[in-house]
Amino acid sequence: MQVPLQVTFENIEHSDTIEACINGDWKKLEPFSDGITSARVVVGRPQHRHHKGDSYQVRIHLTVASGTDIVINRDPDVTDAHDDVYVTIRDAFKAARRQLQDLAGKRH
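The structure corresponding to this sequence follows.
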């Protein structure tokens, strides 16, 4: 990868633990890192869901050398399964890995 991973927090305090989790999952994408030219992860907590407790949103935006953008969005508006930030991060990175594998398969 040419550009380092950028991690941003929206509507929540920065957490070294969450960032370490993201970096750990990012390392699992290492086999695909040669083709990735930029990577950004945004972890947020939407503020319009006060009645149900905390829910988290994770967005991953990857730009691949071929010019393809891969965007993963784990949004609590779609399902209610995002009340654990670590599960949400894990699911988002699994989806990113699948899309990178699909893209690599199409290239071969």
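The chain has a mean pLDDT of 82.
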